[in-house]
Amino acid sequence: MPKDKDKQEVRVRYAPSPTGYPHVGNIRTALFNWLFARHHKGSFIVRIEDTDTARTVEGAVDAILEGLRWLGMDWDEGPDISGDYAPYFQSQRLNLYKEAAKRLIEQGDAYYCYCTPERLEEMRAEQIRLKQPPGYDRHCRDKSATGSVLKVMSGLKRVVRFRTPLEKQITFTDIVRSDVTFESSCIDDFVLLKSDGYPTYHLASVVDDHNMGISHVLRAEEWLSSTPRHLMLYDALGYKPPQFAHLPMLLGKDRSKLSKRHGAVSITDYKDQGYLPEAMLNFLSLLGWSLDDKTEIMSIQEIINNFSLKRVNQTAAIFNSEKLDWMNGVYIRNLNPEDFTRVSMPYLERDLPPDIERPLSAEYVSRITPLIHERVKRLDEVAGLTDFFFAEELEYQPELLIVKKMNRDLSLNALETAYLKLKRMHQFDEEAIEGVLRPLAEELELKVGQLFGTLRVAITGRAVAPPLFQTMAVLGQKRCVRRVKKAINTLKEMPETAEGA
RNA sequence: GGCGCAUUCGUCUAGCGGCCUAGGACACCGCCCUCUCAAGGCGGAGAUCACCGGUUCGAAUCCGGUAUGCGCUACCA
Q: Which nucleotide across the nucleic acid strands is nearest to A314, CA versus C1'?
């Protein structure tokens, strides 16, 4: 047989359930599916698994799609754009599942179960008490169907359960974990159709993956133990199963499943904190996958070109945001000045104190942002790093004005001398300022660090700030002179014996 | 409890029988650069490759067991 015969088109799917925010672990799964599809020039499909009516959250679908869009992941078929296998909401495909369930019942591979939740709970409690493996006791498995007509007529709720083969070995080859074997004797008669008419994940995903022509199922490792159930369903339904690849999970710092108490877990949180989508995508791609032993910073295209399930590892990874911060800094520094200003703007508008006039001047901002560009790891730091450029008046912590190896009088003298010099300047650009201040240090017999440090506090109100001369040039002569004056006054109000911080 | 998967520096990872006295990156420490902070450069510390046996001339790499972690064991996905 020619090789190409069994080479099928790659069709993968991301199948989130809209029960909350788009979790990064979940998004990482979406990413691997997307990378796999794009690498193989296949299709990436988004399918909404809204079969749990109780847990469905309003707006969750939009948030999920928004997360994908933000990262630049596009889909070929999905809830908003439809496609050849529409609809892409499972809640709109109920007939398909019902038909499948009906067929299984007729074939004898499934049956109605009338056990009440109360009975099931009691049964489970008893099993746990007796240290038996919990699971459905197959109470309704071999009940004749004749009695059920009466039960249905009397309004009794029922579910459809799979008639799990009692003794069967299920072996499959997982792309990332190779051969895995399960005994069907350890699997109970799981529910296929719930009493509300909705399918469980097991039935719905099998029916849809088959109907939508999915070639590879790439999902998190937590699904590994469910795979034999799915395989039995494929078998009973006469479907050819797809290939499976179970991806390593994402864990929190304490090695437990990543959740809200570990901090930000929603992809939207990362956007809000000022991570660039390219950095986020690069970082996420490296959680469980690697190109080689050294390459880390890669463009989306490079990742797509090189992505392979062969290089996906089997170990769960701890989501470590320190490294993300570093990587985001790299991406920020790689931005050209215009782009950095552009991406910073929304964060400035959002984070600067409310008393600062809006909208911000784009021209003014574009003169400030280059001064902090290489210092930023996250865009939500930008406002805190630059607020003194926008404030009219500064409030000083007096002790900051006395830098190390200085005292009150020395500082006062330095500032007063500088004040006079600055006031008299005709040109106020970076070179001119440096031309005045550098000789001044010598004149005052101070180290440049002492003079510039003192001035830095006077000009910015803080001990750590962007380079002095550039900062002053952006602020302008008037404001600089005014601030130095205020610093002088602040120092004068201090007792003569005052010490620096 | 049962079943399954996993186990290399604190973290992300490279490694697929000899290239490993285990490589890279983040974080950390030191030095250089320097007006502070960053960025950058250089250097350092950090992993008896979970443990115990076996196979082999030779094992992080193959096999078995143990331990630990994680997952599943719902009318949740």
A: B6
